[in-house]
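writing this on my phone so excuse typos. first protein, seq and then structure
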Amino acid sequence: MIKDHALPSELGEIHISDEVVSIIAGLTATEVEGVASMSGGIAGGIAEALGRKNLSKGVKVEAGEQETAVDMYLIVEYGSRIPDVAWSVQDNVKKAIETMTGLAVVNVNVHVQGVSFPQQKDK
């Protein structure tokens, strides 16, 4: 079941699904320097193996009618300072969701699931 958020207006209600909030959060996080990728677990891996790009991979949204909380699961690039990357993700995701949806973001929890190492070139 897809949950959504109803925002009242003069002409009716505007409904924003959790999937939309997840996509906004996921795309915003991948734009932060030091984030290698999102960690999607088994379900995300299956979707990618089938050729579908999962834009909400590594994002869990818990929302009420006026506010939302987000859990981000990501892989950082080797050499990046993890706290700085996490703080940037929190700040950028909060701003993006609040700007695009009008929902208040109460927290953005960042879970670092791994480190991505640069690929070694064959000689």
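second protein below, same order as before
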Amino acid sequence: MAENLAGLVEETMAALPLHAVRPAGLPAMLAALPAAARQAALTSFKAEAGTILLFPGPDGSLAGALLGLGDKPALQGFGAAAGCLPPGSVWRLADDMADPEDAALGFLLGAYRYTQFKARPTPPARLRATSVPARARILAASITLTRDLINTPANVLGPGELAEAALALAARHGAQATHITGAALTERYPAMAAVGAGADRPPHAVLLEWRGRGADATAPLISLCGKGVCFDTGGYDLKPSSAMLRMKKDMGGAAIILGLAQAVMSLDLPLRLQVRIGCVENSVSGHAMRPSDILRSRSGLTVEVGNTDAEGRLVLCDLLAEAASATPDWLIDVATLTGAARVALGPDLPALFCTDDAMADMILRAGLAAGDPLWRLPLHDAYTSWLDSPMADLNNVSAKPFAGAIIAALFLRHFVSPGIRWAHIDTYAWNDSNRPGQPEGGEAQSLRALLGALNIFCNKNLQN
């Protein structure tokens, strides 16, 4: 597994113990530690979330640390640890750790920084690998992959480079990979090709297929689709500069899907997996699609382009139509699709749309358990007619200024066969500011929720 975990050190070098404590448990914790730790705690340490107490040993040298959790989950509390401990210091999770997986994951996520173009001023504190549970390491590596892809600027990560990242992932895990571009892409994914027609860098699509070692031909088929718009100008319906500033992250859905796929394959879940990502750039040129153009999609449905800035759904519609034709047990897509979802739910809550209540419940419950929440919005049938077009089977936008996230989801539903259990996640994929475990920049929103839901789903199938 390829890793770039700044907060992890492989060496068996000496490591100091890191203890976690909540306010109610502080007296008992101090009673079990050396007298020097108790004396140090008399300063002002109250075990509030994200606070650190360094304590000396008998010789006066640093002997360990207490990390306050307050009333926060362990994952969030440990997210602050890497930035508060002495730079370059090496730690191990103390034996009294209640939840070592969340603790290690929080630490590693908090240590993350994107450093391809700017070095860190000081090295982070690190955890010794021997104290990191394997699942935490796999999750951290998968989230790091997602964050790195989103944070990479569009002049470095275009459609071809995003496709190469998918192919490299397949090679690392022995997955079968199909790389589609050129005339083959135009024939197979015509709506996607129209989105990428205006850019100098041509569109690419990648299909990955993989089967866990414990999965036979009857194992659940999970199909994942990701929107990979490497930069979105809006096309002829040009975005204002303020809205274009972060559009390198418009491939966040594909990045999250690739991170999720890495986690699934690294954990060797007992399922069959298909992954499709569409990698394009939405640019302005004489070849770009125009408002009022009519496109023919893979499914045969014709689409009038009401707005060239609603391009993500045109990328996904072809991927979903192909994925649905294999009749997967679960079909999931992730996309940075609408600003309307952010208006409704803010930056931290991805919107979940789902055709199956049991599937939605699994995803929502897994998200809450992992501290990776989503919020379900309805596929409100009464709004379907808002996509009617006098010239084509449907428009890619509604003329009404309401319910933009729902309208986008209803558009996509046209390309998913009836009866398919399908979930669509409209995500922001970004942290606007630095928070414990969530540094500013790209974020793998919903990755842990979806992984947890897949675990639940696989376990249910194994029991049946």
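Residues 293 and 305 are 5 Å apart (CA to CA). thats all i got for now
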